[in-house]
Specification:
Layout (H helix, E strand, L loop, with lengths): L14 H16 L1 H12 L3 H9 L3 H19 L8 H22 L2
Helix pairs in contact: 3-5, 4-5
Length: 109
């Protein structure tokens, strides 16, 4: 195998390297099919995220989220503390995921 070494001086690439890359970039922009695929991908919405947002609005999740926020406020107000909000975070995630599991799996084909 032969490896080529290219030295870039003063942080600027060689002009030949720039010319070689330009046609490749033009080919990508001329192809309209890629742009249509990108637009379709942007329009797709993850059903998991949608259901999570709805579940966060339920009473049980809101209660767990309030406890988590209160803990974060309490811990954030202290300069030296060993307390963290791991338990409250897990309680919130558990409540949300329990709600999500009931709704998500019924919508999957």
């Amino acid at each position: 195998m032969v490896f080529e070494r290219e030295t870039i001086k003063y942080g600027e690439p060689d002009e030949e390297a720039e010319e070689e890359q330009t046609p490749v970039e033009e080919e990508d922009t001329e192809d309209g099919g890629d742009e249509e695929e990108d637009e379709e991908e942007e329009e797709m919405v993850d059903p998991l995220e949608t259901i999570r947002q709805k579940c966060e609005q339920t009473a049980h999740c809101m209660h767990a989220q309030e406890r988590l926020e209160a803990c974060e406020t309490r811990v954030g107000s202290r300069s030296h503390t060993e307390e963290d909000c791991t338990e409250e975070l897990f309680d919130f995630l558990h409540a949300r995921d329990h709600c999500v599991a009931q709704k998500l799996f019924s919508s999957i084909k």
